[in-house]
Amino acid sequence: MNNIMPNFGCLEGVRVVVAGGGQASAFCSCLLAENGADTIHIEGVQGMDSARGYHAMFYGNEHRNVRELALDIPSPEGREIFEKLIRSTDILIESTRGGTFANKWDLGDDVLWSWNPKLVIVHISGFGQYGDPAYIARASFDMIGQCFSGLPMLNGTPETGPDFAKPMVSDYYTGFTAAVGALMALYKVQKTGEGDSLDVTQYESCLRCQNFQIVEGFTLGKEPERYSGIDGNVAGDAFYKCSDDRYIAIIPAGVGPMKSLLRILGLEGNPDFEGKIMIFKKDPVSEKFVDTIREFCAERTLDEVEKILGEAGVPCSRLMSYGDMMTNPHYAARNNIIEFYSSQAGRNIKASAPAPQFKRNPQQIWRGGALKGEDSKDIMAELGFTEEEMQQFKDAGAICGVGL
């Protein structure tokens, strides 16, 4: 296992500490680690992150580049270590129920800023650090965040009813939101020398990403309508089955693409489609338009349909399977699939490469998710603790890990 972090990326020299479990904080911290931040995940001495037991390779991927410290933060000895760590930290990400740090552990923002005035504090929770007291301390997972935001009401079909957006979009939305917010605050620190505190919730992250439906809902009092296909208003935006039982997605919109598509479908010159650059579902010709696309695809293989439409400039894509991705030339040319070793998984794993891709400061994956406390000894030494002190902390139950 490689425990020596290389220097690379746009965030080289930035230290990130993430305390607590859950996918949202893990994804957020992993995004920063992929770009060169020295990211340290604190896991409780007594328990363990639930993701370790959920799927070893999942943990190996979502905690890649992250160093592991097993520490009992609220204990007197753990607090001493935590304070020393925070003094050298740029961004702290904590994911506990609302109010845990401030009210249960006496580690509110003001306490943390007394240790490090420049600290960016990112609180990730289901319902936030303030609001209705009945909600603040409620537990939350991905599905809970989705439901409280109303997102499942937009998903599913009229036949099946509401459904969760997959996979774990509440956690991933929240992770992205937290990462962007943390970097905004870190930029401001460079200007003012003063840290900030972010209150990031699962449900608000989902609430922000609901397209036109949320505007109609809040402005017009209109509840969202579930629909089959890609777009609820535009005709033709959908998945189509080809003769080899594979599917292609097509979005016919715009002057050039629509003109090309009408020609390919044999509808060019048809007065019903004259001047059309987009056809809406309420249009009288929408059903004929969609039926013609469906028939065109059903008579040809996926490869044939994709080649014809792609060369004509019509936006389309096959529904990629993982097998497709492994052999696709564009995936290969852009190195979209990478391989690395994870000690948590106990093997090499293949996963998606970091995104976006930087030209001058490229990301690296220098290792996968590690074992609990795998870096405890190294991190404690970096903080200046001696072997004797480490043993005392271990005997007190404040730390644990490999080699201690």
Tell me about this structure:
With 404 residues, this protein is of the alpha/beta class. The chain has two domains: 15-210 and 333-400, 3-Layer(aba) Sandwich (Rossmann fold); 238-326, formyl-coa transferase, domain 3, CATH 3.30.1540.10. It contains 18 helices and twelve strands. It has helices at residues 23-34, 50-54, 56-62, 76-86, 100-104, 109-115, 133-136, 142-149, 169-192, 202-207, 211-220, 255-264, 286-298, 302-311, 322-327, 329-333, 376-382, 387-395; strands at residues 15-19, 38-43, 66-71, 91-94, 120-125, 197-201, 238-241, 247-250, 316-318, 337-342, 347-352, 399-400. A seven-stranded mixed beta sheet has the order 6-5-4-1-2-3-12, sandwiched between helices. Strands 7-8-9 form a three-stranded antiparallel beta sheet, covered by helices on one side. Strands 10-11 form a two-stranded antiparallel ribbon. β1, α1 (23-34) and β2 form a beta-alpha-beta unit. The longest helix has 24 residues, at 169-192.
